[in-house]
Write a structure and sequence with these properties.
single chain; 358 residues; mainly beta; Jelly Rolls; Endonuclease - Pi-scei, Chain A, domain 1; 2 domains; seven-stranded antiparallel β-sheet; five-stranded antiparallel β-sheet; 5 helices; Hedgehog/Intein_dom
Amino acid sequence: MSWIAVTDPSTPGGLAPCPGDASATGSALRRGSLQIEAELGRAHLAEGTLLLLHVPGPRPRHLSIQITAGSRVVLAHRLGRRRYQVTLDRGAAHLSGRIRLTLCWDMVAGRGLLSLEEAAEGILVQKEFPDPLPLIQEDIALLCNGAGGVRLHGGIDCVAIADTLEPVGLRPSIAAGTPVLTPTGPAPIETLRPGDLVKTRDNGSVPVRWAGGHEVPALGGAAPVQLLAPYLGLAQDIIVAPEQRLVIGGADVEYLFGADEVLIEAQWLCPGPHALRRRGLCVLRYHQVLLDRHEIVEAAGCPIESLFVGQIRKSPRVLATSCLHALPAEALPLHDIPARRLLREFEAATLRSALLSR
C-alpha cells in the first residue's frame, strides 16, 4: 500500500476516496510520510502557521509546521510526554510560490527526514533527525477531514499521507498508457525497460538507462494536466504531471526568446485550447525514462523531455531519498545542460498569451 489519505482542503468535501483506512483507531503509522502542497505566493505567507493539529487531554497530541523569519520551517510533534522539534533553514529572505513539504519517519530505523521542495526554482532542502514519532490514525482522520483541533493555512491545496517512505525531488511525470516512439513504433511508457531503444529528436535512437513509475497525489496544485489533441502535434490526448516540460517552437518562440524551440511546463499552458487541468483524481501513477543525455522524445506525437537529473549523482544524500535511490551513483549520467532552454513562469505566461492571441 502507499497513499492512504489525500485531501484538498481548498475544496468543499475535503477527503478524497483513496485506498486504505484513515479512520481506524488505536493504531499508529510507525513508518510513513506526510506531504503538503501549498501556494505561498497566492496566500502571501511570509511568516505564520502552515499546519496546526492540537488535541488536549491527559495524553496531549500536537503537530505543527510554522514558517518563521528567514524562511525557516519549524516542525513540532508531540505525543503525550514524547516530543521533538526540527528546524529547516531555507537560507532565503522569504518563501514564495509553490512548495512541497514532505515529512518521512521510520520508527524502526529511528530516523526522520523533513524536505522542502521549490520545484520552480529547482531547490530541495532537507534535514535528517533522530527519534521521530509516529502519526496515529485518529490524527490522520483529523488532518484529512479538517475537523476540530486542526487548522490549515489557506494556501494549502493538498495534504497526503502514505504508509511508505515517499521519495522526494525527482519524480516520474508521464501517465501510464502514453505511447513513446521507439525504432519499432510507439510503445506504452510503462512497458519500457533499461536497454530498450527510444527515438530522440536530436540523437536518433538511444538506450534507456532507467525506467520507472510511481504513484503520487493528484489534487489541488498537483492535479495532472491533460494535453489536448490535435494541438502540440498530438495524435491523442495524454496526461502528464504539472511540471512535465514539452517543446514548443514557431515564430512566437523565435520572436520572444531568440530560439527555435523552448521547453515549457505543461501547467503553464492551462487553461486553454492546448491543455487543461484534470480534476477529480485522488492519486495517479506516472512513469519516466532516464537517458544518457537530457533528450526530447515523442509522446503520442508531442515532443516532451526525458527525465532531467542534473548533478544528482554528486549528492549522495539527495539521491538516497529520490526515486532513483536503488541506482548506484556511478550508474547515473550527468546532465549538465537541458536539451532546450527552460522557460521560467513569467516567460511562459508571455508565450501563452501570444499563443492564445492567434
